Please model this.
Amino acid sequence: MLTMLSSRPRVVVLAWSTVIAVTALRLAFAASLPLTGDEAYYWEWSCRLAAGYADHPPAVAFAIAAFAWIARTPFAVRLAFVLCGLGTALATGGAATIFARDRRAGAFAALAVTLAPMMIVAFGIASPDGPYALAWACSMYFAALAFDRSQRRWFALLGIALGAALMARFFSWALLLGIVAAAAVPANRRVWRAGLPVAIVIALAIYAPFLIWNAHHDWISFTFAFLQRHPSDEVQFARPLTLYLLGLLAFSPGLWVAATIAAVRPRYALVAWTALPLCALFFVLALHERVEIYWFIGPFISICAGLGVASRTRLAWTLIPAAVLSALIFAAGIAPRELYAAVSHAGVHLSDAGPFEMFTYRPLSRDVRSIARKHDAVVMTDGYGFSSLLDFYGGLDPVVIGYDAQGEEARGWFTDSRHPSRALFVDKVPLSTRPDFQKQLALACGQVSPGPVLSYAYRRYYTTWCAGMNRRAIATLRWQTAKS
Model:
């Protein structure tokens, strides 16, 4: 890795060859693992394309729909996100090249966003992070071109990229505002006359359908994002430090420390204003609510674009721990069964609820479908991802019950208007451990009785029969009032 960042011209070829190799490994990663619950949930969205969804803007659904029609396989669902990874590396490298006037800077930036462990995951599974990262990186690239050359075409492309970012994650508002703030710097004020307002208008025009959709759905996306996703709790002063330490693992120690140094002493207004305010906000939020480490993906891309300006030889060591951690992730993803056997052989007991439960989804879906069809029953779960997995692998209508605010989108897919008379409730724990569900089942069902226990190599599932369902059964099992 050190030789790749030397002064020899072949550094660029070697760096981009690494990016291509990692992309190929991501393709293998995407094909080797069953879908997770969130991925199946987003796949459900792709089957019901809309301008917005309760939990997120719609970019993730359209990304899945671009290739999911090929086949109902995890690889087809994830293919667009692997391509997002390649595009993100290209765009981030392009922005760094413009900043530093040096293709080696672009090579380093591309390697940084490619090898960071968090990015291996983000571009190996179907999630809003793939389109979000690509749109953020493209925004940085077109902004760098527009600020450098002041040509209208680059501002137009910047507007398209910003619009796509807004349609991927709410955090992209920080990107748009950061670019506006960077344009307020005296050295950049000319971009207002050159075409920045055009970029803003295009971005808002692309975002408008999402706003219109929300206006017709009680602004549900905004309510969920700002009020329901992570309820606030009491202030914990140690949590920002914990968050920072988690970043060392998620983005690798070398790249995280280098990004911290670059953030403290940014050389470019575009990097500073698109990264620092959002990062600061996350650490402030961490004082009183849970902040997810993947929220830093956007600012990390901006900082990587600025990292290439520093000495590539001096920063080369930062790629080594990133490459090691990413290699471990690939090994676990491409050969998970072997990893499970090795861990078990070492005497480590893995929880029933661990990640290996994903290998039970396909046989579980097949068995549950057989049982439900034999008794003419619908299948219920209290997890939006779990229900979506049963649909993906078993073609079972996703009937989501329970009181969790997440997965709100799924509640409209099956309602009491279908008037089911019998249902099979599938759960990951015995019903005896859930008195709240026992109470609601008693209210919704004429008869409640135990169903079969389904056991597989990695976990056990419990089922409950609900017969003689009343006309408000589904609403009751969702803790909805009579008026709602």
Confidence is low (pLDDT under 50) at residues 1-7.
